[in-house]
Specification:
By secondary structure, this protein is of the alpha+beta class. It contains six helices and six strands; from the N terminus they run H-H-E-H-H-E-E-E-E-H-E-H.
C-alpha cells in the first residue's frame, strides 16, 4: 500500500516505478488527471472524455486496465453510487475512511471525514472487535442547493 505524505504526480511516478510499473504516456495522463483533481469523483465516461482530450487514441480497454492497476496499487479507490462506479485518488488528507454525502436529486457527492466518523467507527470496533483498515460510508439525502430549489 502506498503511504505518501504528499500525493504529487512525481511521488506517484516514483512509487509505481519502484514497484515495477512502466510509466507510459497513457498512465501519465491518467495520473495527472487524478493529481490535478484530488477532490473529484470521476465516473468512467467523464474520465475517458478527459484522457481522450490529451490523447485521442486513448482506448476504453487501456483506461480499464490502468484504472484496475491503480486500484490494486491503492492509488485510487472505486465506489459505486447509484449503480455508477466513481474513481477518486486516495490522499492522506481524506484519511483511510471518509463519508460521501450523496444528493438523491442532483447526484452531487461531497466528502466528510470529521472526528464524528472516527468516533462512530471506534464504536463499531469496540462492539464487534473489528479492526477497520479503510473504507467509505455513503449517506444519501438532499443537498442544500436542492433543498432550497424545492422550497421555491
Amino acid at each position: 500500500m502506498i503511504e505518501l505524505e504528499n500525493v504529487s504526480l512525481q511521488n506517484l511516478i516514483d512509487f509505481l516505478e519502484k514497484t515495477g510499473v512502466k510509466i507510459t504516456l497513457t498512465r501519465l495522463i491518467l495520473l495527472k488527471t487524478f493529481t490535478d483533481n484530488p477532490d473529484v469523483h470521476f465516473d468512467f465516461n467523464s474520465l475517458l472524455k478527459i484522457v481522450k482530450k490529451e490523447d485521442p487514441n486513448y482506448g476504453v480497454a487501456t483506461l480499464y486496465r490502468n484504472l484496475d492497476m491503480l486500484i490494486k496499487k491503492n492509488i485510487i479507490s472505486v465506489n459505486t453510487i447509484n449503480n455508477v462506479k466513481y474513481y477518486e485518488i486516495i490522499t492522506p488528507q481524506k484519511g483511510n475512511i471518509h463519508t460521501h454525502l450523496i444528493c438523491k436529486y442532483c447526484n452531487n457527492v461531497e466528502e466528510y471525514s470529521g472526528y464524528e466518523v472516527i468516533q462512530f467507527l471506534n464504536l463499531i470496533k469496540d462492539k464487534y472487535g473489528f479492526d477497520i483498515n479503510y473504507g467509505s460510508i455513503n449517506v444519501y439525502g438532499i443537498c442544500k442547493k436542492c433543498r432550497e430549489k424545492l422550497k421555491e
